[in-house]
Amino acid sequence: MSRRVTVELGYPGDTRDVTVEIPDGEPVPWQVPDRFELVGRSTPRVDGAMKATGAARYSYDIVLPEMLYGAILRSPHPAARVRSVDLSAARRLPGVRAAIEIGNDQARFAGQEIAAVAADSSDIADDAIALIKVDYEPRRFAVTIADAAASGAPSVFSGSNLDKPKISSKGDVDRALASAAEKIEATYVTPVQTHVSLETHGAVARFDESGLTVWCSTQGIFSVRDDLAVYFNLPPEKVRVICEYLGGGFGSKFGARPEIVTAARLAKEAGAPVKLMLPRGDEHLATGNRPNAEQTVRLGADRSGKLVAIDLVQRGSGGVGGGSGSSGPFKMVYPCDNIRTSETNVYMNAGPASPMRAPGWPQGCFGLEMAMDELARSLHIDRLEFRRVNNTNPVRAHELDLGARAFRWDDTKSALAKQTGTNRRGIGVACAAWHALGASGPEATAIAHRDGHVEIRCGTQDIGTGTRTALAIVAAEELGVPISQVASEIGDTRYPFSLPSGGSMSAPSNTPAVRQAAAHLRDKLFRIAAPILGAAPSDLEARDAVIRVRFDPSRSVAFKTVCRRIPGDSISAQGERLPNYQEFRPDQAGCQFAEVEVDTETGITRVVRVVAVHDVGTMLDPLTSRSQVNGGVLMGISYALFEMRRMDPALGLMMNPTMDDYKLVGPLDTPKIDVIFLDVRNGGTNTGVLGIGEVVHVASTAAVACAVSDAIGVPIRELPLTPDRILAALEHA
Amino acid sequence: MNRFEVVTPADVEHASAMIAKPNCAAIAGGVDVLDLQKLGVTRTATLVNLKPLAAMNGIDEKPGGDLRLGALVKLHEVAEHPVIRKRFSAISDAARQAATPQIRNLGTVGGNLLQRPRCWYFRNPLTNCLKKGGDRCFSVGGLNRYHAIFGGGPSFIVHPSNLAPALVAFGASAHIVGPGGVRTVELEKFFALPSVDPHRENDLKAGEIITEIIVPAPARGARSIYIEAREKQSFDWPLVSVAAVIVANGKTVSQARIVMGAVAPIPWRVPDAERTLAGMAPSEENARAAAKIAIKNAAPLPDNGYKVKIAEVLVRRAILGAASEAATASDQT
Ligand SMILES: Cc1cc2nc3c(=O)[nH]c(=O)nc-3n(C[C@H](O)[C@H](O)[C@H](O)COP(=O)(O)OP(=O)(O)OC[C@H]3O[C@@H](n4cnc5c(N)ncnc54)[C@H](O)[C@@H]3O)c2cc1C
Fold first, then answer.
1. Rounded to an integer, what distance in angstroms lies between the CA atom of residue B211 and that of residue B219?
2. Residue A655 to residue B124, Cβ atoms within 8 A
3. Of A641, A646, A666, the CB nearest to B235
């Protein structure tokens, strides 16, 4: 059975009524102007105090009886055959309980896992690592794209280091470019960026009668479970994965990565639990990165400034990994009739790429938006206007207007036209897109206890985005109780299934399941309350910590009183995330504006202010959402100005694998960030919440880079925008 | 794991005797010592803790106007001390711009002057570079964007200390206690180029301890400044720093001392530039000319030519900055 309900979707000024089929048991989608108690208001993180006081338990904090400490030996060679690994001396060291070979008979990057030990203390483990004798046969290597792609380059695997180009094409790009009134061609280069999650990767693993239990820093407890079940040939239910708190992942913490498997292997071999958390340096070498990219972009436009062709020829390297494509923005942000992209992954002897916050997009956006600026200049069109002309998304059109007003684009532009002196300011704008609509799959349990407190259980994890808070807001809203009465229990595969936290999927995938579970729980409580109130369950509502008769609110009973009538200790209800029904749009828009100041004598650049405009579907919590935007913008500034994995081509080593040498944005580099949310009711689910982690990062780097080029009057087509590059560009201006 | 013991000496002489032994070293704030031990770049077995040596503490203004800085004084104290801020502002500015609040609360004057280079080849446990006893400096033909533009060869490290250029600009000296007794050495002569010995950055002998720094009272009308350029503003090292002490009488410079940091293996004084300023008005034009002279002997590596440009700019700005203060000061007196 199902019902049809009509919901109003869109944003102020452009709404439409959409009729959707709601299956039985699914709550009616949240509607604006529904009267919300919590949704859309600022709720401080429910676990903020736990984190601030150190009470929150991260994998790092897990200590088990008899626990051993693991360490990994990594290849010092960028390429070598591993002839033999001799663990005997390490095994003989007192306090060493297990020593294993990881099983890589070829080292393909400096930092690759070779062997591991577990010992009574991490000091002993480190000593044991130093006693492992590995007979390496070093080989030729290549650690830059140019070296790896050169003819006669040493093979990273076997054969060519170049994958076949991935080509996608619509229309006739060559013809359109040939007849374009104005066109540009330029090559834009981005570096490898490492994730630098606050918490390093790693795990604590324990085998016992019940199977394998792993506490690990992961974005996907169920994917870790499944990988480990396969690896150890156990039924998945015999593997329990726990991640109560996670210090960031940004895409680098999916699945049973080598250090997780290694911890478990050591635990098995030693017959005791093993903790293996990576040291900071390994994070830069071996746990993932955003691949670099060299993007040759050709754009053509007609006289009116309409794009007629977009052409991208790209190559990038994910080190010994793949996934270096960056074509997303070229296909999605400024759709035109003729678009062609060609992407080639190049293998080189460096740490493997892994997904990183909007994989491929910040680099693609940088290439595209820089090219847009260059074309706008040759067309003598205002750069913002050029984007308006080529934008086809009405949400983004609205956002560009909001942003331009808040940023004072026109006024700033005229003021800057008159600037004098050696400190030069510049402005830039860049557009974002994403598709964080979430997916079906997650389930949730809502439990009401006799003392009136409510528990939500969902096997998701919080990668730092405030998942616990989001889930608690949804449940508390649905049940009409204060948020302090709701506890979100997440991060354990004993809880109902959920998806990995990636692709900005968590909020849009989990909140509808939680809302459904809470609605079902509320219905059960209504059945208990109905006789007390002398009303039918269907006439009740839950608000303000009471359950009351909808048409006669004076007839009410406290939520807690109802809970005391629960026959057992608690009652529970299930919820599931259904496939998306009709949405307003299948994507998200967004745009960011940046103003920078460049000291043209020293080349040192400071971002002065950023205005970020985004649509997030139903606004659950502006505090948490704003924090996501701040993080996305800062990470983008860091990528624009500072970050780069620096490989010595002759040694094959990363020279800056430390927090000191790997330059990250800091407090004094933080500009004023104004965040504007466009309220877009997107529909699709019973909450209408969209993910926001990635879209807020897509355009940040590009906006800053465009502003820097504007400030100095010459484009700089290579990141990071360090003083050497800025001074060189000015010299050749 | 690099194991070591930490021992507490009874007094400076005792400490000196202990660190004279092989495989022993002093530890003050420990910021750099422990970093190098953790990296395995050093494997010192015994660290002699200087912190209990109260005699090495304290900041005093001597009757003649000299400044005494105990070697154990924290960077934070230097940054905030009213006398230093007023009369030796380049020194407090240098301290204030170093590192982060946490590090300034630990790092000491002595440790700051004696910290080892930040070169990423030196600090990488996988490379056996010249400074660590190997036979080559990997920055040559390697990644050298942060390396020396002056005084390099055979090693191209830059001296990392913020305090060093400021103290050299004031003509400060170090008091040193060692197995051979006590000596005082001008800091300018204390730091040593790699051409003298690539394994060390100064002339501290086995067992020697810096107990205090004496900064002579600046001449009347002297004003000082310390400025630096960093890639990023938080938690970063200077690409180039400049300390200048300028004495101006009326509208002309009578004496100038200009010292650059982070550009050479030692604090890099530029006497030619200083001389061109003497007797001249500290005008934009003269500052420009002096700055040009300051960089004329630069010998950049392939990746660090930009540091020469920054150095020139900072020297000019430092001269103008110090001179404008000096001018105001002499107007007032
Ligand atoms: C992230 C970061 C950023 C930094 N940024 C800067 C910066 O911008 N500018 C800057 O100048 N510094 C910077 N530093 C370095 C920091 O200032 C120094 O490491 C610190 O000042 C060293 O002082 P310490 O007392 O801890 O020295 P220690 O680590 O204790 O000692 C350093 C060396 O000096 C020796 N030693 C110490 N005291 C004496 C003494 N009295 N006599 C003889 N030998 C002695 C030790 O044996 C050792 O060899 C930074 C450090 C970090 C970690």
1. 25
2. yes
3. A666
Measured in Å, residue B237 CA sits from the centre of ligand 1 at: 13
* Domains present along chain A, CATH in parentheses: 36-65+196-287 (3.30.365.10), 68-139 (3.90.1170.50), 393-436+584-732 (3.30.365.10)
Contact check, Cβ <8 Å, A656/B3: no
Cα-based torsion angle of the residue sequence B132, B134, B136, B141 in order, rounded to the nearest 10 degrees: -70
pLDDT in tens, B26-67: 999 999 999 999 989 999 999 999 999 999 999 999 999 999
Q: Determine if ligand 1 sits within 6 Å of the CB of residue B243.
A: no
- What's the gap in Å between B31 CA and the centre of ligand 1? 6
| Class of the CATH domain delimited by B54-114+158-215 | alpha beta
Considering chain B, tell me which residue range(s) the CATH 3.30.465.10 domain(s) occupy. Answer: 54-114+158-215
pLDDT of residue A32: 66
Q: Does the pLDDT value for residue B332 go beyond 90? A: no
Determine the Cα angle at A612 with ends A610 and A614, to 5°. Answer: 175
Q: Are strands A96-101 and A552-558 parallel, antiparallel or unpaired?
A: unpaired
- Mutant choice from A638, A644, A655 vs B, greatest count of B C-beta within 10 A: A655
In tens, the pLDDT along A524-541 reads 999 999 999 999 999 999
Of A603, A655, A668, Cβ closest to residue B306: A603
Segment 93-132 of chain B within 8 Å of chain A by CB:
118, 120-121, 123-124, 126-127
pTM for this model (two decimals): 0.97
How far CA B304 is from CA of A501, B84, B219, in Å, comes to 42, 34, 36
Q: What is the ipTM of this complex?
A: 0.96
What's the pLDDT tens digit per position in B134-155? 999 999 999 999 999 999 999 9
User: Residue A259 pairs with which residues in a beta bridge?
Assistant: none
Report the C-alpha gap between B263 and B162 in whole angstroms.
12
Using an 8 Å CB-CB cutoff, list residues of chain A that contact chain B: 76, 110, 122-124, 126-127, 601-604, 606, 641-642, 646, 648, 650-651, 653, 655-656, 658, 660-661, 663-669, 722-724, 727-728
Under CATH, to which class is B222-332 assigned? alpha beta
Q: Is the CB of B261 under 6 A from ligand 1?
A: no
Give the helix ranges, DSSP H, for A317-360. Answer: 328-332
Residue of A nearest to B305 (CA): A724
Is the model's pLDDT at A218 over the cut of 70? Answer: yes
- Provide the 8-state DSSP code for A655: S
Average pLDDT over residues A402-417: 98
Q: Where in chain B is the domain with CATH 3.30.390.50?
A: 222-332
C-beta neighbour count of B8 within 10 angstroms? 13
